[in-house]
Amino acid sequence: MNCRIALFFLLIIHLFISCKENGVEQRTPKIEVANDYFPTEIKWGYINQAGETVIKPQFDDNRNFHEGLAAVRKGKQWGYINQLGEVDIPLTFKSAWAFQADRARVQTFDNKMGFIDTKGKWVITPKFDELEEFSEGLTVYRAGINYGFIDELGKEKIKATYQKAYGFKNGLAKVKKDNRYGLINKEGKIIIPIQFRRIGDLTEGLIRAKLKDRYVYLDEQGTTILKGNYENCTDFVNGFAATKIKGKYGLINRKGIFVVEPRFNQLFAANNDLWIAEEAGKFSLIDSKGKQITKRTYDQIDTFSEGIAGYRVGYLYGFLKADGEELTPAHFGLIWNFREGMSRAAFREGIGFIDTKGNLVIAPDYLDVRDFSEGLARVQLKGWF
After folding, report:
1. CA distance 221 to 13
2. Backbone angles phi, psi at 275, to 5 degrees
């Protein structure tokens, strides 16, 4: 492998490791607002699922298509293009995010955030220090150092009195005050007292919460349902949760009974009615009864996307099918989740796409590429070498 290719692999491995996280603690992504933008030598464009360049590389940065529009940047300014590559909303913003439900979050050059519609008109005027995406009809906003919620008209629904606030899920939202967490409803009423060191969302009727050094499970009224002296735990998934006792993880049912005895160093949902389990540094797939599904163990297994999971052996990656059988050998330098029937995969030549049968469908002709969204993927051509 020559120096150019070696540097290429080091770059994408660094990016991959920085983006991937395994573990039971579920995090809310931070709002990223860039303060300084610079023109890039290698421009971004878009390809279709046949690998044809349909929007030529011309952008310093860009985002995936959502609802027929994509945020793009030239120089320091962001705007939106349609799938023909035409500018639909002029590049006049400091930052821009994806459209959801016919509105998009943007930031002006005086560092205020609001929402625009698909015509570029303001639906929520840019007067907020920080905004997140809408969830169940409300969104988090920041005023100074405190957080609250506004509705879809931009009207304050819950005053900004919290140290941190998170999006609503199943009618409840996590809030933080005095470095403790609780849950509120859409009227701002505290449902779960703000007294926990950690707290999860309402999932399958239960909420995991940490008080002092142990976790319990609460119902949506705040009553402790399962008090199992858990050192750590996950949300319930299809009636089961991974819990940690005496340094090891097992699976419990909704009654708190272990259906898989604690023996794993790591245990988390694989998103396919299976669980990813680690013993002695090796990973396997197990079912909810503890039966190993994979025929062998691996150095890493990722969660399923579109019925396929990635695995790693040594420094190379491959794919597993839903039954635990190997879809491909481990011969990729790096892989990503499947989106719209295809996954990115790194070869010596660059990054390309494979389909759900493991076949190469778009040649690795790209320096960098992102997942498909609405039939298009953003790419950087590698012809600059």
Report:
1. 45
2. -130, 145
